[in-house]
Amino acid sequence: MPKYSFALKMRIVNDYKKGDCGYGQLAARYAIDAMQIKGWIQTEKRHGAEGLRKRYRYHKVEFKLEVVRQIAEGLSLQKASALFNLNRSQMQRWVRAWQKHGIEGLSSKRRGDSMPLPPAPVPSAFEKTKGCPRRRLEREVAYLQVKTVFLRTAMGRGLNEADLDSRTKTQLVQELRIQYPLDALLQGAGLPRSTYYYHLRMAQLPDKNARLKGHIQQVFDRHRGRYGYRRVTAALRSQGHCVNHKAVQRLMGLLSLQCHLRRRRYRPFTGTESCIAPNVLNRSFHAAEPNSRWVTDVTEFRVDQQKLYLSPLMDLFNREIVAFQISSRPSFQMVQRMLEEGLEKLSDHEKPLIHSDQGWHYQTPAYQQTLRKHGLTQSMSRRGNCLDNAAMESFFAVLKSELFHCNSFSSLEQLAAAIREYVVYYNHTRIKLSLRGRSPVAYRHEHEARGVCSSNP
Which residues does the UniProt record annotate as the domain Integrase catalytic (predicted)? Predict the structure, then answer.
C-alpha cells in the first residue's frame, strides 16, 4: 500500500473544505482512491490534523478486542478508521487474527495472521490466578456474549434496556439459566444477587391482587376490549369493589389489556349554505329532562365494494339512542322511518328540539312538515362545522372504534346485525362516566324514579 505524506493529506483535506470539488474530483486530481480520501477527511474532522500524522503506537489487547467487537457488530472499516484513528489494513489484520486464533491472535507480537503462532506455554500457577490478563479477557468476552444474548431476549419482547426493571430482569435471567451460568447472567443483567433472590421469593408468594385481576379481566372481556381503565374502574365500583383507578391502570398494564384506539378522520362539508333553520342548539349538548333535545345524523360504512348507512336519533339527556334505521342506500325513507320511530316514544306534552347538520334529508319539505305537525323545533349546524353536532359525531366515533374497525365483516347483513346488537349494548350495558358510571337506560330509570318520589312525598 503506498504511503502518503502529511502535507499531501492536509492539502487534499483543505481542497475539500473549500467546497470546490467532491471525493470523485479529488480522487481524479490526485490519482488516489476516493474511499481513502473520504477516510482522511473523516479522520481530520474527528481527531484534527494530528490524526493524519503517521504515528507508531503500541495497542493493548483490550483495545484491539474492542475494535474487533465493533466491526463484528456492523461498524464499517471506514467508520472504524475515523473513530479509532487506525489504518484499515491494520484493522483487517486484527479481524483475521481474531477469526483464526481468537484472543491469542490479538495478543501475539507477530504481524499478520499468515505466520504461525508460537506454541502456547504450559500455564504456570501465577497464570491461573484471577490477575492473569488472558483470564480477564476471557471473562470479558464471556460477559459481552451473555449481555448480548440478554439484550436480544429483551428486545424480542419489545423492551429496551432502559425499560428493564429488576422484576423483568429476574424473569429474563430465569429463562436463560438453562443455557448460561447464574453469575454471568447476573453480571450481564446488572442485577444484584440479593435483588434477584428477593424477586424469586416474591414470585412464589400468593398474588394479593389475583382476585382483582380476575374481576378486571372479566369486565374487559365482557365488553370485548372496549373499556379503558376509567370505565373498568367505574364498572368495578358499581359491583361493590372499592378500588383506585391508578391501581386498575397498573394492573391492566401487567395483564397487557389495552382498549381499542379510536380512529379520527376529518370530513369537510361541501354543500351549500342552508337557510332552512338556525343553529338553535348552539353546541349546548346538555338537557335537564328526557326527550327535550335530540340530535341526529347519517354515517356510512364500507364492506368490500358495498356501503351501509345508519341514521340514529340520540337523546342529549342521557345520550340514549331512542331510534335508528339501517339501509343500503342513503334515502329519505330511512330518515323518515327513523323520525317516525322516535315520535312514537313521545308523550303528548313532549316537544323536543331536534338538531342535525345541513344534509339534504333534513332540508326536504316532507321532513320539515313532519316536524311542524308534531310541534318539534328544528335546528341545523353551520355549514361545514362538524363540532356543532359533536355529540352525534362522538357516538359514530365510538361505534366505529369499538365495533367496525376492530372486526371484519363479510356482508352487509352481518354488519347490520352487529350494529343492532351494539346499539342495544350501548343503551343498556355500556356505562358512561358522565352519567356517574351508569348506562343511558339505567340513568333514565334513576331519573324517573326520583321524579316519582318527589311527586309522592
Answer: 286-448
pLDDT digits (tens, 9 = 90+) for 31-65: 787 777 877 787 777 667 766 666 656 778 888 88
User: Residue 269: which of 185, 341, 359 has the closest Cα?
Assistant: 359
Give the list of residues 6+ apart from residue 155 with CB closer than 8 angstroms, or none.
none
Residues 317 and 430 placed together within one structural domain of the fold: yes
Same domain? For 422 and 314 the reply is yes
Residue 113: pLDDT band (50, 70, 90) is: very low
Residues 33 and 162 in one domain: no
Q: 163 and 190: one domain?
A: yes
Shared-domain flag, residues 151 and 85: no
Q: Residue 42, exposed/middle/buried by CB under 10 A (0-12, 13-18, 19+)? A: middle
The set of cell numbers assigned to 185 is 447472567
User: Total domain count for the chain?
Assistant: 4
Is there a domain that residue 29 lies in?
yes
> Nine-digit cell at 316?
342529549
Q: Do 303 and 432 fall within a single domain?
A: yes
What average pLDDT does this structure show over 301-307?
A: 89
- Check whether residue 198 and residue 214 sit in a common domain: no
168: containing domain: 133-204
Instruction: Indicate the residue type of 159.
Output: L
